[in-house]
């Protein structure tokens, strides 16, 4: 892969670059086969390298009274492939529910995005749903700058390349770029990259519900403060059996357990032996969230960054959470954030919703 241009890549100047609020952009094209491959404009908006930001989170999580591990450990390139298998598994109802809702409502949802807007997708993933939305915007003759924000460079590049095949830069009204970084990085980038045009943030796949209701409110507050509006897709299913089937099957097990080798890779040691851990899922009724855990198969002593952490057989480390919030709960979360649900599109059973959120 040839990097054809880049704004300063000098690591030493990184802190001064960040302090001037300039984010690195790189433009590259793949020419291995000599074919005309489109360039990818990728902005590295990370304020810290991934290992630098995640290792302290792993340590803090092991030190905390209720042990937890950063959910971001799940989202490396391999994690995204494993998540694709989750999306394809017949028991994973949120994927089919969101697809059919988007299919039915995509034209109406797209009316909330105007020509000239900047559309930023948080946690863009495989961008299959994105393609549906961008096709609709194109059919509505809108010119849109689309930015896919996600955390793994190689997965982001691969998925952008696939999307670019559908929307070639030369002939399409839709211009595609990438933002490499977390949601927080993206919020910081937005603050220093104000645009004259309106910004719409799209958060699909129930991803906002990976945070507690309080954290979700804080994210909304932060994004709305940049003057953006938000399109948020959320699962409101309350059927416990269906949730357990969907989140506790073999595909989910593999997806969650992949966090352990990723932790080892970032720590540079084999602190977590995957054979020592099992996966379990549970419903947390206080938070209206499903929670996934690593469970110690035997008594363990883990050495991480020079400290030893003891686990008795059966003790857990919490991994990812997935909230199941019906409309009333979503409205409450938005209100807490100083926002308001301006419009919403629900499936017939009212178990899945897409919400348009703006400042109150
Ligand atoms: C549940 S998947 C949803 C993917 C896609 N939007 C969809 O609807 O199929 C969550 C996506 O968010 C990304 N992600 C998770 N945590 C993130 C964070 N803190 N900042 C940025 N992206 C994140 C993951 O890499 C993944 O692509």
Descriptive report:
One of its GO terms (molecular function) is methyltransferase activity. This is Histidine-specific methyltransferase SAM-dependent domain-containing protein. Belongs to the methyltransferase superfamily. Keywords: Methyltransferase, Transferase. With 360 residues, this protein is an alpha/beta fold. The protein starts with a strand and ends with a strand. Strand 14 (339-346) and strand 15 form a beta hairpin. Helix 4 (93-110) packs parallel to helix 5 (128-139). The strands form three sheets. The chain has a ten-stranded mixed sheet with strand order 1-2-3-6-5-4-7-8-15-14, sandwiched between helices. The protein has a three-stranded antiparallel sheet with strand order 9-10-13. The protein has a domain at 51-122 and 192-360. Helix content is 37%, strand content 27%. The radius of gyration is 21 Å and the shape is globular. 37% of the residues are buried. The chain contains twelve helices and 15 strands. Residues 72, 75, 80, 123-125, 129, 149-151, 182-183, 204-205, 207 line the site of S-adenosylmethionine.
């Amino acid at each position: 892969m040839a990097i054809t241009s880049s704004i300063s890549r000098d690591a030493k100047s990184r802190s001064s670059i960040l302090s001037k609020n300039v984010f690195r952009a790189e433009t590259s094209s793949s020419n291995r086969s000599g074919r005309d491959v489109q360039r990818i404009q990728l902005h590295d908006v990370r304020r810290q390298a991934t290992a630098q930001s995640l290792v302290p989170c792993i340590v803090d999580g092991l030190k905390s009274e209720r042990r937890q591990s950063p959910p971001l450990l799940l989202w490396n390139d391999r994690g995204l492939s494993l998540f694709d298998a989750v999306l394809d598994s017949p028991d994973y109802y949120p994927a089919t529910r969101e697809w059919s809702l988007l299919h039915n409502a995509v034209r109406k949802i797209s009316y909330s995005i105007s020509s000239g807007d900047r559309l930023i997708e948080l946690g863009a993933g495989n961008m299959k749903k994105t393609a549906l939305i961008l096709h609709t915007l194109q059919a509505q003759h809108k010119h849109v700058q689309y930015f896919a924000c996600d955390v793994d460079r190689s997965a982001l590049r691969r998925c952008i390349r696939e999307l670019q095949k559908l929307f070639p830069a030369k002939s399409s009204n839709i211009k595609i770029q990438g933002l490499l970084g977390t949601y927080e990085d993206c919020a910081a980038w937005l603050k220093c990259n104000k645009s004259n045009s309106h910004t719409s943030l799209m958060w699909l796949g129930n991803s906002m519900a990976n945070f507690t209701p309080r954290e979700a409110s804080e994210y909304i507050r932060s994004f709305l403060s940049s003057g953006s509006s938000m399109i948020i897709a959320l699962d409101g299913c309350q059927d416990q059996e269906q949730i357990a089937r969907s989140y506790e099957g073999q595909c989910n097990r593999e997806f969650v357990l992949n966090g352990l080798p990723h932790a080892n890779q970032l720590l540079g040691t084999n602190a977590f032996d995957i054979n020592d851990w099992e996966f379990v899922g549970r419903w947390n009724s206080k938070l209206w969230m499903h929670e996934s855990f690593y469970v110690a198969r035997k008594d363990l002593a883990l050495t991480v960054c020079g400290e030893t952490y003891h686990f008795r057989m059966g003790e857990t480390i919490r991994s990812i959470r997935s909230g199941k919030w019906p409309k009333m709960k979503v409205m409450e979360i938005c209100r807490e954030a100083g926002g308001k649900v301006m419009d919403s599109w629900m499936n017939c059973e009212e178990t899945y919703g897409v919400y348009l959120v703006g400042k109150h």
